[in-house]
Every structure is written in C-alpha cells, then in structure tokens.
C-alpha cells in the first residue's frame, strides 16, 4: 500500500516530488494535526471501552461491534499515526523496511476490520452513520492512491502533495470521530457515561440547583 510509505523500498512518499526537504509549514503543522488526532482518538476510544466494560447492560451485539472498532482505532492510532507524522519533518523513512511494511499492514487491517464488522453488526441509525463517516473519511485517500497508481496523466506536483496531506488527515481523523458519534447519537452511551463518571455530573447538578434553593428560601422568608 502506497498510502504513507513505499513498502517496496522503505522510503517515504510524503516528500515532495523533487525529493526536496518538506516545507517548514508542512514539517510542523501536519505532525501537530496528527498529534491532536492521536490524543483525541486515544482518549475517546478508551472512554468508550471503559464505559462498555463497566456496565453489563451495554453488552449488546451492536456495542461489541463498537468496542471492536474502538480497539482497532486505538491500535491504528498507536502503531500508524506517530510513524506517519514523522515522515513530514524528515526527508525520508528512517524506521527500516520491517516497520514500513508493518505500518502499511496495520492501515489495511484497520480498513478491513471496519468493513467486515459493519457487515456483521446489527443495523441501526448510529451504525449507518459510522459506516457513512468511514466512507467519507477514507474515500479521498483511497481514490487518490487509485488515481496515482492507474492514471497515466497523474502529475506529481505540489498541488497533488497538498491533496494527499488533506486526504491523510481525513482518513486518520476517522479514528477520533467515532466516539463523538456515540456521545451524540447513543442515548444508552450517554446514560452509561453519566453513571460511570457520576461525580462530575453530580457536581454540575448541585451547582445548577443552588439558585432554586436560594429562591425557595427567599419566598419562605417573605411569606
């Protein structure tokens, strides 16, 4: 897979077509975006696994599918995102041929896992949204790779390089979007999350109820 590394020779294809060092903005901005994606994705998916494991009522077929996706996203974020981020400030791949092939394998594994799990999962509105987001996020980079490989008129210019950066960020952001979907669309997830972290929500409720208590005291004093 020629998505982020060339597995045949272990060199980076994130460099510019003229094999020049990356521009300064690419060298620090792209790794920064990847770092944010990694932190948000690891935090969100870890919370999803924690909530599912803590409540037996969450042990359903759909939630096991979601837990499987969360585990796959965590593996992908840990094994792929840091290595791809390093490609941009460096002129070439420095981790050797084995890691080059391993990163490409994990990327393919993540795509195949989401596809196969979506077929086996119970169809629901949330699952359909997850599948649509997966297609939206991973479609551009897959289309770019196909055009790059099969189009005889493809030009390796800086515009194509920018498009590939954007497509990379889109595909990797899919691993941190799923937990947000669970939070907004899954009522059971929201309830389970509140039960798991009840201390945080109890404090918010007590603060919100304090003005009402003061108002009741004033009314009682007037009467």
UniProtKB/TrEMBL annotation:
Q: Name one GO molecular function term.
A: G protein-coupled receptor activity
Q: What is this protein called?
A: G-protein coupled receptors family 1 profile domain-containing protein
Keyword Membrane listed? The answer is yes
Q: Give the record's keywords alphabetically.
A: Cell membrane, Disulfide bond, G-protein coupled receptor, Glycoprotein, Membrane, Receptor, Transducer, Transmembrane, Transmembrane helix
Q: How does it sit in the membrane?
A: Multi-pass membrane protein
Task: Mark the transmembrane ranges.
Answer: 28-52, 64-84, 90-106, 126-145, 165-185
Q: Report domain G-protein coupled receptors family 1 profile positions.
A: 44-142
Please name the InterPro entries in this protein's record: GPCR_Rhodpsn, GPCR_Rhodpsn_7TM, KiSS_1_rcpt
Q: Which residues form the signal peptide?
A: none
Presence of keyword Cytoplasm: no
- A Gene Ontology term for the protein's cellular component: plasma membrane
